Fold each of these.
Amino acid sequence: MADEFHKPTKFPGKIFESFVGGIDPAESSRIAHETAMALLARVRVDPDPDVVERLVAYTDENGIDTIAELWSRATPRSLPGALWRIYLLRLMIREDPHESSYLFQRGSEIIGTIDPVVAGASMPTGPDEIITLADQILRGIFEGDFAVALERAAAFCRVSAAGSASVADDSDAAEPTRSAALTTRALRLSTLADELSSCARLWRHESLD
């Protein structure tokens, strides 16, 4: 890659387009599941506000290397897979809140579903509002209804996918490269939405591990 990262790595938003999932060796899978379950169980039993805030802001101060090493190769419909995707989604938003809020706002205007309401962003949605939403979703993983947090993240992805597809259509003639990138982003977001929705359903049936 042309980008040269230095620890702590702060992944550019474009990494989101390709850095999702993978096949995990058995030992790495075991560690991923055990660390995810241990972290979530400990924090949710006693959701100390200071601890929750440190977890929410962890990647801001330390980069995403450690989380990526632990959870990025976990299967999408698993507890570590869900946690990885929520952290990655927050990072994508914070790396470019202007683009993220623009695509979400566009999607909210055209999607025709309740997803903007489920996502819970303030309207109109600007950069500050989209960052707040990202933090709220991650915070909800640790101290709120876990399934609701996943559903909010999935709704955000569906709205943003609709916005990305719409802007891609607008850009197709004048900016074909941008149009192609936004189309890819829309597909990735749609896939992520499906994965997070599945994780929410599994959690409600006590089957997400």
Amino acid sequence: MAEASVTLTENQFSCSICLDLLKDPVAIPCGHSYCMNCIKNFWDKEDHAGVYSCPQCRQTFTPRPVLGRNTMLAEVVKKLKTGLQPTTPADHDAGPGDVECDVCTGRKQKAVKSCLGCLASYCETHLQPHYESPAFKKHKLTDATGHLQEKVCSNHDKPLEVYCRTDQQCICYLCTMDEHRGHDTVSASARVAEIQVGRELVI
């Protein structure tokens, strides 16, 4: 008998609450599956009403259903996870001349952004916390660069975000309070704009 070829995608095995691959998958009475912790936390918020619902189809259950780990689904997700790892497109691997992700272990991915707050470069996957977590909200991201130390003040370890016209050099905001106090300064981005306008006028 010929084997049927089935194509499984990550989305089919994602929890609709956390949007990640299912962890400790459980199927609730309506047939929808969730991570054990996700549905527990969801139902904990409904405890006061005593009626429990499915976040997807809104079917209600009383009393609260007892949850059991779906071992077969857990195996499928595990196989899907291991299948996803090696299929990372080779074009994401860092090659000669590319900036490598500082977090990747083993095969290094190509960095897409560098963070002046962390002084590290990140691939798409490891950059996600900078977009999702409030802890990284004030970090300044730039195009991936392998020369991060050159963008940081050697005296204060702060990003060089200010241009001192008096001394014609990039400095950090703390420098404006110390050795560059009272100097003619502008933001580095304003200086870049000035240079671009000057070039256009020459042309």
Amino acid sequence: MAEEFHKPTMFPSAVFEAYQGGIDPAESSRIAHETSHALLSRVRADPDVDIVERLVSYTDEHGIDAIADLWSHASARSLPGALWRIYLLRVIIRQDPVSSSFYFERGVAVTRTIDPVVAGAEAPTGPDEITALADQILRGLFDGDFAVALDRAAAFCRVASAGCTSVADDLDLTEPERSSELTRRALRYSTIAAELTSCARLWRSESLD
């Protein structure tokens, strides 16, 4: 399969706007679960630094399609579903770190929760810091506390959602189309946050399949 993905596949923002929770056919579900469990078990049993770094940067070389083929249709509250969402978030952040950091910083300014602390981004959070956060979260799935990594990603999504909502409110009268786009993006972030939080809870109870 690697030969088919020599260059990273750009992930259009419109696809993220249209994101919905996955509904998986039986065969796709079986493959997704088997591959995700095999990968995670192998790496976490022996978290070799080089292997972990290759997994973190996998989509940089092969594109998001290679991951999507395996896990994007898995149930949102499953191991492959969780892995897919973390990779998806990393691709979105790395493709536009300027916007990602801007919405995150706005979210930090307007939220009244501990989510910015849970997410763990360095402050102030610019493009470099938000990119580093994405890498840290993904790396944490393989060589850290898996549930904590999911919680950090969920917190990032809630902060980004708050930021998108705040900017959407600012643009409601002057740029209604852009405002609607950001409102949809906020909803997607919020949805992913809820899904990842559920996955973290299932992982802690040893029932994330």
